Amino acid sequence: MLMMKRRQGEAILIGDDIEIHLAHIGRTRVKIGIKAPRNLAVVAKEVHLVRNENRAAAEWAAPPDLSSLAERVRSSGAQESGSRSDEKFEG
After folding, report:
1. Closest by Cα among 7, 13, 38 to 25
2. What confidence category does residue 78 fall into, taking pLDDT thresholds of 50, 70 and 90?
3. 8: Cβ–Cβ under 8 A, 6 or more apart, which residues?
4. Residue 63: pLDDT band with limits 50, 70, 90
5. Which is nearest to 2 in space by CA: 11, 14, 18?
6. Please, are residues 25 and 8 in contact by the beta-carbon 8 Å criterion?
7. Which residue among 32, 54, 57, 76 has the highest number of C-beta atoms inside a 10 angstrom radius?
8. Whole-prediction pTM value?
């Protein structure tokens, strides 16, 4: 990891395409501006971590194959209706 000292208003270059500006330095926070190519995703690390957790949870809790469930419902319904047609009505 490279550590650099910068003052408010100064910038850091990463390669030829990425420029980081120190816009404001407060008591507990630093406001930075990032210029990067549009095809390069720039997000806070926390956003990236939450996105990955959400994707993992969505894959883990994937819905079951509904076609097999629908087929089981159809076949159980056919069995029930078939057994009822054999019953005789006595009145």
Report:
1. 7
2. low
3. 22, 23, 24, 25
4. low
5. 14
6. yes
7. 32
8. 0.56
